[in-house]
Amino acid sequence: MATDELRAFGLLIKTRRKTARLSLERLAVLCGISSSSIKHVERGRVSLATCSALLATPELRLTVDDLPSFAREPHRQHRGDTALLRLGLSLTEFAAREEVLAGVMRFAAHRELPELGEWAEAKLLTVHRLRSALYSTDELPAAGRACLVAGRCCVSLADQAACGRA
Fold first, then answer.
1. d(Cα 165, Cα 54) in Å, to the nearest integer?
2. Residues 6+ apart with CB under 8 A from 151
3. Residue 149: which H helix or E strand, with range?
4. Total domain count, the chain
5. Do 135 and 95 belong to one domain?
6. What is the separation of C-alpha 117 from the centre of its chain, rounded to a whole number of angstroms?
7. Is the same domain home to 15 and 49?
8. Most buried one in 90, 157, 160, 161, CB count within 10 A?
9. Last residue of some domain: 38, 59, 86?
10. For the residues 59-68, what does the mean pLDDT come to?
11. 8 Å CB contact between 108 and 120
């Protein structure tokens, strides 16, 4: 059974999700967890791994202080360590976000919507920075490492193939 603190956290997540205009399914995709896990959180049942995934999702704008007490201290202890954040973010999820944003950029170019294209490009750069911060190059297989060619950062495998590195 959920405690008052966990129910309050669940309500916070639901409020932030609705404020960000995210469906359960969309938030689940962004967090890298199932929509049923999001439902459980909103009902006051949450795990440390779920807290990590939610904390790593910028759309919710959570801080460590927003987390339930059982999850605060582990995240504070590892403030410089990305191990807990990796629970919710994998290379596959980064690739999925990159693919969606690249699709938005193509759509914006096709429909001549420069503001949307600029927004998607800025988000894509943020995803690239997050990916670089979370995964040091010595931890990744060669295919997953960022390629720096002529000042250009080729992060996705498609980018790497286009520049001839892959």
1. 34
2. none
3. strand 147-149
4. 2
5. yes
6. 20
7. yes
8. 160
9. 86
10. 86
11. yes
118 is written with which tokens?
């600029």
Asked if 83 and 75 touch (Cβ cutoff 8 Å), the reply is no
Output the domain CATH number for residue 31: 1.10.260.40
Is 90 exceeded by the pLDDT of residue 12? yes
Contacts of 56 (CB under 8 A, 6+ apart): 31, 85, 88, 89
* Sole residue written with tokens 């910028």: 58
Residue 127 Rama label (left phi>0; alpha psi -120 to 50; beta): alpha
Last residue of a domain, one of 86, 106, 138: 86
Per-residue pLDDT tens for 77-136?
655 444 445 544 555 566 777 888 888 888 889 888 889 888 888 888 877 777 666 554
Hey, what amino acid is at 99? E
Residue 51: closest CA among 77, 25, 88: 88
Indicate if the pLDDT at residue 2 is higher than 80: no
Q: Which residue has the higher pLDDT, 159 or 128?
A: 128
**Is the domain of 68 the same as that of 115?**
no
The number of residues making up the chain comes to 166
With contact defined as beta carbons under 8 Å apart, do 30 and 22 qualify?
yes
Domain span including residue 66: 4-86
